[in-house]
Write a structure and sequence with these properties.
By secondary structure, this protein is α/β, with parallel strands linked by helices. The strands form five sheets. Strands 12, 13, 14, 17, 18 and 19 form a six-stranded parallel sheet that branches. A five-stranded mixed sheet has the order 2-3-4-5-6. Strands 1-10-9-8 form a four-stranded antiparallel sheet. α17 runs parallel beside α19. The radius of gyration is 31 Å and the shape is elongated. It binds nickel (II) ion. Nickel (II) ion (NI) binds next to loops. The site of nickel (II) ion (NI) has 5 residues, from loops.
Length: 525
């Protein structure tokens, strides 16, 4: 009894919350249900439980989304959602980009590339055949926490055939400030998981800065709190401060913090077995025999987190067109196609720009110099909305029938008119009628961009035929030729775009398609 009371008194001194009990402590009747007060360290770290291997597995299921919360986050962050379905390489991948978040997007791209290349060294983007069943792009909520077998068999995430590679993603709002991205790549061959890797990126949702992990000071602070809890669990009543972690243990602690699981209002950190400290030795523990999991309130964890100093700070613009242009084009991963429009601008170009804006698609316009001067506002708008321009000469003559100097002037004078209006360099041209030779290209000093899908829209084949040809013919890397001076070509744009999107195509400018390797004659006829 005396001992109990003494114990009670000693323990309550360290907790403010117990102040009233302390005041009345001496007069209290013995309480059989009494147990020592839980120690609260300044860091508010709490021991959750001793974890077994199974617990560790399920602790990955921490921040589980519903598809609704995922979509809400996707909308809030204006995620550009992506999907790869590649039967040839036997790969299915789901991911997304965040407009303007360059460092995050580059990290996602790098993970995809390093994951896909060992799986398929000759990987080439592949478009789905016309009429194929397509799935919504982006993540399946919770899929990064599924077991490997489910990831490769669930119809939403499975690769095209057994034994293929599945890449899944998820994004979770941890707090109003912090969001976590997860990507996971899984391959199961003959019933055995041959690949299972993942990355997590925690970032500030407002600044898009990646949270660069926990500081060394945080690791020490966590160490002191954790060791204090462990010694108390073992019966120690010591109030002596815990000494700093030795270098060997500090590394373990740092890694445990880096692997922390984020929950709605706290993070959990799991220390492996083998934790040793003089304070534990004092109560007879040479080293912990089981892993231990600790809960840290988010407020504390946030204070411990460092912002990566090297991170790009560019944030997304509100303009959706700009947003589209603030994400990477990865034509080595996704099937890309370039829509090109010749002979304008003209009276229908504004209507086309409306459709392109609605669909968030960027194209390349090969424009005629004097028409650029006639429709400067159309060109300025197209420029502001991220479309690209190439010279289609001044007078639309067959360049191969002109003296070399005149051919050169036709292209470069057109180029200059565009540049004066847009302030952006013109990097290529399209020879009228596709009539070109190496001599002219060399003289002009710009790449000549031809095409490999000719819609023959100038023959006026009718809208249905135009849509069918433009949607069914392209393959990854195609350049499609239209003319925005024909009303049908402009009218079918929404259907052409949605048809190509269903086949999995990403729309890029010619420069993006060629990754700025602009030289010679592209798609010589
Ligand atoms: Ni033309």
């Amino acid at each position: 009894m005396r001992i109990h009371k003494l114990l009670h008194k000693t323990l309550t001194i360290v907790t403010v919350a117990s102040a009233t009990i302390l005041l009345n402590g001496c007069e209290l009747a013995p309480d059989n249900a009494w147990s020592p007060q839980k120690f609260h360290s300044s860091a508010a770290v709490q021991l959750l439980k001793n974890t077994t291997a199974d617990d560790n597995k399920s602790s990955k299921n921490a921040a589980v989304n519903t598809q609704e919360t995922y979509q809400a986050t996707a909308q809030k962050l204006q995620l550009q959602q992506r999907i790869i379905t590649n039967p040839k390489a036997n790969i299915a991948a789901r991911f997304f980009y965040i407009p303007g978040a360059h460092t995050i997007n580059d990290t996602i791209t790098a993970y995809l590339r390093t994951t896909i290349s060992p799986h398929s060294s000759s990987y080439k983007p592949q478009a789905l055949p016309h009429g194929a069943t397509t799935q919504q792009p982006g993540c399946i909520a919770g899929s990064t926490d599924w077991d490997a077998h489910t990831i490769v068999t669930d119809p939403r995430t499975a690769p095209p055939a057994a034994g293929g590679l599945a890449i899944v993603c998820d994004i979770t709002e941890l707090t109003p400030e912090h969001t976590k991205i997860q990507l996971r790549a899984v391959q199961v061959r003959s019933g055995t998981t041959s690949t299972d890797t993942h990355i997590s990126i925690v970032f500030n949702s407002q600044t898009h800065t990646i949270v660069g992990g926990f500081s060394a000071a945080a690791a020490q602070e966590f160490w002191r709190a954790a060791i204090d809890i462990l010694r108390r669990e073992a019966g120690s009543l010591s109030l002596a401060p815990v000494t700093d972690a030795p270098a060997s243990q500090l590394q373990t602690v740092q890694k445990a913090l880096d692997d922390a699981e984020f929950h709605s209002d706290h993070i959990t950190v799991r220390l492996p077995a083998g934790i040793a400290a003089p304070e534990l030795a004092a109560v007879g523990i040479t080293a912990t025999t089981d892993p231990t999991t600790f809960a840290i309130p988010y407020q504390t964890a946030q204070r411990w987190m460092e912002t990566a100093p090297h991170t790009a700070q560019e944030s997304a613009k509100n303009n959706t067109i700009s947003a589209k242009h603030n994400v990477p084009t990865v034509c080595d991963l996704l099937p890309c196609v370039a829509l090109t429009y010749d002979d304008g601008p003209g009276g229908y170009t504004t209507q086309l720009l409306d459709s392109l804006a609605e669909a968030q698609v960027s194209t390349t316009f090969f424009v005629i110099g004097p028409l650029v001067q006639q429709y400067p506002d159309v060109i300025k708008r197209a420029n502001a909305e991220g479309h690209e321009f190439g010279s289609h000469t001044l007078h639309h003559h067959d360049l191969t029938e002109l003296p070399l100097a005149e051919a050169k002037h036709e292209v470069l004078a057109g180029k200059q008119i565009i540049e004066e209006l847009t302030g952006k360099p013109v990097k290529h041209f399209r020879p009228p009628y596709g009539a070109i030779n190496e001599t002219i290209v060399k003289e002009v000093g710009l790449a000549a961009i031809l095409w490999n899908v000719d819609t023959n829209d100038w023959r006026k084949p009718g809208k249905e035929a135009l849509i069918k040809h433009a949607v069914e013919t392209p393959r990854a890397g195609s350049i499609i030729l239209f003319h925005d001076i024909h009303p049908d070509s402009v009218a079918v744009a929404p259907d052409v775009i949605s048809g190509l999107k269903k086949r999995g195509f990403q729309f890029v400018t010619v420069s993006e398609l060629l990754d700025n390797n602009l030289q010679g004659i592209i798609y010589d006829r």
